[in-house]
Amino acid sequence: MDATILLVEDDPSIREVTALGLRAAGFTVSVAADGAEGLERWRADSPDLVLLDVMLPRLDGLEVCRAIRREATTPVVMLTARGDTLDVVVGLEAGADDYVRKPFEMPELVARVRAALRRHRPDSAPGAGTGTAVGGAPTGAAELHLGTLAIDLAGRSVTRDGVDVPLTRTEFDLLVALAQAPGQVLTREQLLDHVWGYDYLGDSRLVDVAMGRLRAKVEADPADPVLLVTVRGAGYKAARA
Predict the structure, then answer these.
(1) How wide is the angle at C-alpha 217 spanned by C-alphas 152 and 159, nearest 5°?
(2) Which of 231, 221, 227 is nearest to 241 (CA)?
(3) Nearest to 97, CA basis, from 86, 84, 112, 82
(4) Helix, strand or coil, per DSSP, at residue 237
(5) Is a pLDDT exceeding 70 seen at residue 108?
(6) How many Å apart are CA 49 and CA 4, to the nearest integer?
(7) pTM of the model
(8) Which DSSP string do the residues of 160-222 spell out, in sequence order?
(9) Which H or E run includes 89?
(10) Who contacts 108 (Cβ-Cβ below 8 Å, separation ≥6)?
(11) Fold match, 4-120 / 129-238
(12) Residue 147 in contact with residue 227, Cβ under 8 Å?
């Protein structure tokens, strides 16, 4: 996979070892030592993916991620040494596509990076073209409907009662995966595999946080969802028409 990675990491030893490992995996890597430099390099170089430490001098990783998200959909994978689940959630809420905890093994990091890059290829999104959805439903329709939502697969856009609903790439793909199989329960593992592109490396919190963000945008009452329903102990399902 020929792709350029911007690595933003303030620890010189971690930065050097990680850059060497990514280059050995076939990536072109540029580096930055703090958040402000990382944001400048991202704007100047337009990398395919940003690997971003959370704790950075001058400008922390969360602020860098938010700044990137205001301007582009470049995939962002956060690096965190923190163990608190709240910190992971905050990173995902800031717009990160994924996260990897330190210390990490290079094979895991490379797998996460490759999965994030695959997800951001135009032809990799759920519902693109024809075929079978994660739940076994045909995906040939040009438009899906869920309640008052109209989902344009080709245009990757969603409207509610004719009004645009801005979704991130991950939120859109999650919505499509569920809307293609109305009434069918999809496990977190199925959604991780279909939307994020991996299974055993995944963390169900990715699904739960993304679902929370999605519901906040498409449900009339996110605290009492009717379109995207939790099936306790099993997963999620979209309401039947």
Answers:
(1) 30
(2) 227
(3) 112
(4) strand
(5) yes
(6) 7
(7) 0.73
(8) ETTEE----HHHHHHHHHHHTSTT--B-HHHHIIIIIS-STT--HHHHHHHHHHHHHHH-SST
(9) helix 85-93
(10) 100, 201
(11) no
(12) yes
Task: Provide the β-strand partners of residue 138.
Answer: 132
Mean pLDDT in the chain? 86
- Domain boundaries, given as residue ranges, for the chain: 4-120, 129-238
CA distances from 238 to 65, 177, 227 (A): 30, 9, 6
Architecture of the domain made up of 4-120: 3-Layer(aba) Sandwich (3.40)
Give residue 27's pLDDT.
97
Does pLDDT of 131 surpass 50? no
Which structure tokens are listed for 178? Answer: 């569920």
> What is the identity of the amino acid at 59?
L
As a whole number of angstroms, the distance between CA 199 and CA 210 comes to 16
Which H or E run includes 93?
A: helix 85-93
Q: 129-238 in CATH: which number?
A: 1.10.10.10
CB neighbours (10 Å) of residue 230?
14
Cis bond upstream, residue 103 (ω within 30): yes
CB within 8 Å of 135: residues ≥ 6 apart: 177, 180, 181, 184, 186, 190
Indicate the SS3 state at residue 91: helix
